[in-house]
Write a structure and sequence with these properties.
Structural class of chain A: mainly alpha
Oligomer: heterodimer
CATH architecture of one domain in chain B: 3-Layer(aba) Sandwich
Order of helices and strands of chain B: EEEHEEHEHHEHEHEE
Number of helices of chain A: 9
Number of helices of chain B: 6
Strand content of chain B: 25-35%
Structural class of chain B: alpha/beta
Number of strands of chain A: 2
Strand content of chain A: under 5%
Shape of chain B: globular
Order of helices and strands of chain A: HHHEHHHHHHE
Distance between the termini of chain B: 32 Å
CATH topology of one domain in chain B: Rossmann fold
Largest sheet of chain A: 2 strands, antiparallel
Chain lengths: ~270, ~200
């Protein structure tokens, strides 16, 4: 089974449709024409660039280049996690904790899936490694960002509750336990919901892509199941680890709440 | 509460926190040292430092035990700070207590024992404050830091809570730092009275 080639002229047809839509949006004074056109241009440019990078990566198949690519993806995800928090930890702590948690969970799960489950030869074959890591990182990133945001915001709002608990001689784990559990839960719920709805409400994107590319639905479904389970594992452990590390940072050695270590994002 | 415990003095030497300088006080067991001062003078901050809830310099000890000899929670189990406004984090009152408090404690503060089964949202601010005082007796402290303990109470219960506290302090022989601003109350309860002004603590009575 081969995939039908998409020529630039065919893509341009889709582009013309977007132009027509933006014309209508302009006429209807929706005020989003400019933003839509810029976003569409970005899609074309960014995806073309990543296409070039991936083509190069696929042709070399060297572990070094694949690792570099993976590190770049990780650092960008770490930056994104920090940017998505309303309040973040001072210094580089939010970035560091987010990146470490995603590294530990996503990379471990990706390597495990590659070496044990899928087992291509070599195990880092980019055709498998890069999409797998990309999907894991993307989902873990969302989970970690949600739970760190939740942890920091709730801690800020409930700082006098936490301190009242400390006054009664509770340890820092007891004093912030409820908030911590709530934060991890909120980070994991989107993936759990996605698993519950898969196949009924939505046809997951990866599976649909594989089917488009000529894979039989039966095989595509198996890959999708694997991916969804691994995403849940990666997001779950990533959320737990990040909340564990960040909540420890909110207290010092004397187990005092250090609310001064939280700042509004976009300030230091 | 259990029987008589021999507590040590609460001693604060050369404490520095924020703009507070060289705060030095020794409170022997059973004595109440009242601290007053304008709002913003750092009274609550001083108590927070003694409870080790904020970074500070200086030596604080209870009997022969220095603050730094113990972990934060161990120290705060002994030196109990009771804030002006109590916080509640579970739905029901009883969940906040390690052990169910003795009914005599409740009735001494004019509280019905049914109150323990109620949701926190049903409580008045006066009831919360009185329950917070009882909650603060577990685990049993060896010194008390009171931050305007009767400020949220109406005139009637203010006196009875004050008497209850005086009774407990006499019984338990705690050294007590008591932040207050009502001069009459200070006259009634204080063994010594300190005034906090411009970051300095001075003995006035």
């Amino acid at each position: 089974m081969t995939v039908i080639e998409l020529s630039p002229a065919k893509l341009a047809l889709a582009g013309i449709l977007v132009l027509i839509l933006s014309g209508c949006a302009y006429a209807a004074r929706l005020g989003i024409t400019r933003r839509m056109l810029i976003a569409a241009t970005r899609t074309v440019v960014q995806l073309s660039l990543i296409g070039i990078v991936l083509e190069a990566l696929f042709s070399t198949s060297s572990l070094l280049w694949i690792s570099l690519m993976a590190m770049a993806m990780l650092l960008i995800a770490g930056r994104e996690v920090t940017a998505r928090q309303k309040r973040r930890l001072t210094g580089g702590w939010s970035f560091a904790i987010g990146t470490v948690s995603m590294f530990v969970s996503s990379f471990t799960v990706a390597v495990l899936t590659l070496t044990v489950v899928i087992n291509p030869d070599p195990w880092f074959t980019p055709q498998y490694a890069i999409p797998l890591l990309g999907m894991l990182l993307g989902n873990t990133m969302t989970g970690v960002a949600i739970c760190l945001d939740r942890l920091h915001e709730t801690t800020w709002q409930q700082r006098s509750v936490i301190e009242n608990r400390l006054m009664l001689g509770q340890t820092w784990q007891e004093a912030i336990g409820q908030i911590r559990r709530e934060a991890v839960r909120s980070g994991m719920i989107p993936t759990i919901n996605a698993m519950a709805a898969a196949g009924i409400v939505s046809l997951p994107g990866m599976m649909t892509g594989q089917i488009l590319a000529g894979t039989t639905p039966a095989l595509a479904v198996k890959y999708q199941i694997l991916i969804m389970l691994m995403i849940t594992v990666g997001t779950g452990f990533g959320s737990m680890l990040s909340v564990l590390l960040a909540s420890r940072r909110l207290f010092d050695k004397r187990e005092r709440l250090r609310i001064d270590r939280l700042v509004l994002n976009n300030s230091e | 509460m259990e029987g008589f415990v021999s507590n040590g003095s609460l001693s604060i030497r050369q404490l520095e926190i924020g703009f507070l300088r060289d705060v030095t006080v020794t409170v022997p067991p059973g004595e109440i040292h009242c601290i007053s001062g304008k709002s913003g003078s750092g009274k609550s901050r001083l108590l927070r430092a003694v409870a080790d809830l904020e970074q500070h310099n200086g030596q604080i000890s209870l009997g022969n035990t220095r603050q730094t000899d113990l972990s934060g929670p161990q120290w705060r189990k002994r030196v109990r700070l009771i804030p002006a406004q109590s916080e509640w984090w579970y739905d029901n009152v009883l969940e906040h207590f390690q052990v169910e408090p003795d009914p005599s404690l409740l009735s001494a503060l004019e509280l019905n024992s049914d109150i323990l089964k109620q949701p926190v949202s049903y409580l008045s601010s006066g009831e919360k404050q009185r329950l917070a005082l009882i909650r603060s007796l577990y685990p049993q402290p060896q010194a008390l830091l009171l931050d305007e303990p009767t400020a949220n109470l109406d005139e009637g219960s203010r006196k009875s809570v004050e008497n209850w506290l005086l009774n407990m302090i006499r019984q338990q022989h705690w050294p007590v730092l008591w932040v207050a601003h009502d001069q009459e109350q200070i006259n009634r309860v204080a063994s010594h009275h300190w005034d906090l002004e411009n970051g300095c603590l001075t003995l006035t009575g």
